[in-house]
Design brief:
The chain is 7% helix and 41% strand. With 203 residues, the chain is mainly beta. The strands form five sheets. Strands 3-5-8-13-16-18-20 form a seven-stranded parallel sheet, covered by helices on one side. Strands 2-1-4-6-9 form a five-stranded mixed sheet, with no helix packed on it. Strands 14-17-19-21-22 form a five-stranded mixed sheet, with no helix packed on it.
Length: 203
Amino acid sequence: IFTVINNGRDIPGSLDSAILSANGGANTDNIIEFIPDDLEFLTLTLGQDAPLPEIDLQLLDPGTERQVTLDATGTISFWITTAEDVGADFVLLHVESGQATLVDLDIFGSAQVDSEDVSSQFVVDADATLGFNYSFEYQIGDDINGEGSLVKEGDTLLDLLGVNTYTGGTQVLGGELRGHGEGIQGNISVAKDAALTWKDDAI
């Protein structure tokens, strides 16, 4: 479905296979780990006909809500990017159900449409959740849309830069979540030892 590029050497399907394995139940912990020996210094480039697969965590058992963690902890320089000319509505990651949590994963998208730079987007469906848990300060520049929710975990700062329209609410369980007026959406809850920052004013 897509290709991982390592110094000009193509490794087809590496992340795709891992996601499908987790969806199919082969990974009982629902954790997709990026092994440093296999994926360090790699750039995963998504082309026009090769979007990141949609994650449906209820694929085999609709009655059971599942969770998956995309875990890049300890992996050196692993990036997910988009190629040019993929369209203005390019979806970088689509969470259809359950919760998908990104752990220390560098993920962003950009494209060229009519010679203009446009960002890609995350889509989170109703009753689904997109989670972020980074051990270092990180910025999410892509828009987060849909009827689902966002969860911030971990002790560090996460900065939301996009014009987000997700409506399912926001939970800050740890660290600091920072955003502007169009960056943090829905009902908001902040844990006792966490912080929500609007520009320079912390709540």
